[in-house]
Design brief:
Elements (H helix, E strand, L loop, with lengths): L1 H17 L9 H21 L3 H16 L8 E4 L4 E3 L7 E6 L9 H12 L4 E7 L2 H8 L6 E6 L7 H11 L3 E5 L5 E6 L10 H16 L18
Helix pairs in contact: 1-3, 2-3, 4-7
């Protein structure tokens, strides 16, 4: 009965919200302005009622009907090496992961990200954006290989106002944005893998690798790469 309820709920939101999908704005910030407030109100109520399934349906509906296909602004990012780069300068699909220095990564998570970046750097640009000051992420940046561009943005920096408002205060963190070469959102995922604390390193690494790879498969240029999953740490 519960599965039937969830299915009916999903169908209600999918078909109801799909009616105005054709009128959805073309840009990500506009979509947030129009739809995020209503989603937050309904999702918070679902969480208060401990209705996790409804909250997930609401999130999926928001992403599928109003967020996917919208276009990022061409944000200017600040790298830990003190360079400024625009997203459009990459000229390839982008995997943007928002994080924070105070977040504790799961076992094997950063290593899995580095492995993926090493493997797919020719097809996809890997960027990790930390919500913090540069001085607080310099040591963390050393945990990633050179195929990952580590950037930062901070609330009190005037030049970061838009990116903070659009990305940090929308879906929380960590959030993965998968963009095509034209900076359109192909997929968006909130959170990462959640291996058990007593999981072995190999199992935790594999779980993280496959979780992030699943999202990457939507923007990988070679469709055959979608079938790739790691089974060991080689």
């Amino acid at each position: 009965m519960r599965k039937l309820y969830t299915l009916l709920l999903f169908m209600f939101y999918f078909f109801g919200l799909a009616q105005d999908q054709k009128d959805s704005p073309a840009f990500f910030p506009d979509a947030l302005r129009l739809h995020l407030g209503k989603y937050n109100t309904e999702a918070n109520k679902a969480y208060e009622e401990n209705n996790i399934e409804k909250a997930q349906v609401l999130f999926d509906s928001l992403i599928n009907n109003h967020i996917k296909g919208t276009k990022f602004e061409d944000y200017t990012l600040k790298t830990v090496e003190r360079k400024k780069i625009k997203l459009s300068s990459f000229q390839k699909p982008v995997f943007l992961l928002t994080y924070a220095s105070w977040c504790i990564p799961s076992k094997g998570e950063f290593q899995a990200l580095s492995k993926l970046a090493q493997k797919y750097s020719k097809e996809v640009k890997f960027v990790i954006l930390f919500w913090d000051k540069r001085g607080n992420i310099k040591d963390i940046a050393k945990k990633f290989n050179h195929n990952i561009t580590v950037c930062y943005a901070y609330d009190s920096y005037k030049e970061d106002t838009h990116i903070i408002a659009h990305l940090k205060h929308s879906f929380g963190l960590p959030t993965s944005y998968f963009l095509d070469q034209d900076l359109k959102i192909v997929n968006l995922k909130r959170g990462g893998a959640h291996p058990q604390q007593n999981s072995s390193y190999v199992n935790a690494f594999t779980m993280n690798y496959n979780t992030y790879h699943e999202g990457l498969s939507s923007i990988l240029l070679d469709k055959a790469l979608k079938q790739d999953h790691i089974s060991d740490t080689e």
